[in-house]
Design a protein that fits this description.
Blueprint (H helix, E strand, L loop, with lengths): L8 E4 L5 H12 L3 E6 L2 H12 L9 E5 L5 H10 L5 E4 L14 H29 L2 E6 L12 H17 L9 E8 L5 H14 L3 H10 L9 H11 L11 E4 L9
Helix pairs in contact: 1-8, 4-5
Length: 263
């Protein structure tokens, strides 16, 4: 399918590996110019070289900006590289798992800053320009924990739910009439470093073996497997497409059927 976004320019956060890289890969294959962001320069530069080899359009560019996008200085560097974006994929590493009794105010503020306020700052910086040009796609990578909270991910549950509430309002504001959509993409269990760390935390808390926890998690997924970053990226690219122009303010769940609810 031609997604109709070849030649557009995207900003993709957390793109050195995992789900962010999967999104950048799908967009590059769709002919999109991509600016990728992550904190680790070595991994980000490697991702840049891999993405350059995957371009469907040899004239499209892939630029790498190694900064912490959750800081004002990091965002300033990103917008110094490119002032306007047609597509923004917000994605910051999730807060660490643990027991809520151990988290102090500073840890809560850090979680909210990274996983709620940073996406809001990126939306604020780009959405009006998108509306003026008559096209814009913003996809926030959040978590299936917004729909089905995970006890050891309380910091993530809280911060990402706050972002979902904000998006529900702003996506339905005047920007929707100007070709701009904002949606949240909620990953379930995907084969990423994040999944490994979450399972390790659960093992430490329960005293159970990691392999046993993995088997139990798989048993609870109707698809009987974990997701792959590349297929997650394909969903993201669709949400950025011209075909998805009538979808906005939605929480799109990709979890192999693990969430049991109707709504």
């Amino acid at each position: 399918m031609d997604l109709g976004i070849s030649g557009k320019t995207a900003l993709v956060g957390g793109a050195s590996k995992g789900l962010g890289y999967g999104c950048a890969l799908a967009l590059v294959r769709a002919g999109v110019n991509v600016v990728i962001v992550a904190r680790g320069a070595d991994a980000l530069n490697l991702a840049q070289q891999q993405l350059l080899q995957e371009r469907s359009n040899s004239e499209s560019f892939v630029k790498a900006v190694a900064v912490d996008i959750t800081t004002p200085q990091g965002r300033e560097a990103v917008f110094a590289e490119r002032g306007d974006y047609d597509i923004v994929v917000t994605n910051a590493g999730g807060p660490p798992p643990g027991d809520f009794r151990d988290w102090d105010r500073d840890q809560w503020i850090k979680a909210v800053d990274a996983n709620m306020l940073t996406p809001i700052e990126l939306i604020k910086a780009t959405v009006d320009g998108m509306a003026q040009r008559g096209f814009g796609r913003i996809v926030n990578i959040t978590s299936s924990s917004v729909k089905a909270p995970i006890d050891v991910l309380g910091l993530s549950n809280g911060a990402r739910s706050g972002l979902s509430g904000f998006v529900a309002g702003v996506a339905r504001s005047g920007i929707a009439a100007h070709g701009v959509t904002i949606n949240n993409l909620l990953p379930g269990a995907f084969e990423t470093d994040r999944l490994k760390s979450t399972m390790a935390a659960s093992a430490a808390k329960t005293g159970k073996d990691v392999d046993a926890l993995r088997a139990a998690r798989l048993a609870g997924i109707p698809a009987k497997r974990f997701g792959q970053a590349e297929e997650f990226g394909a969903i993201c690219a669709f949400l950025c497409s011209v075909q998805a122009g009538y979808m906005t303010g939605q929480n799109v769940l990709a979890d192999g059927g693990a969430y049991p609810g109707t709504f």
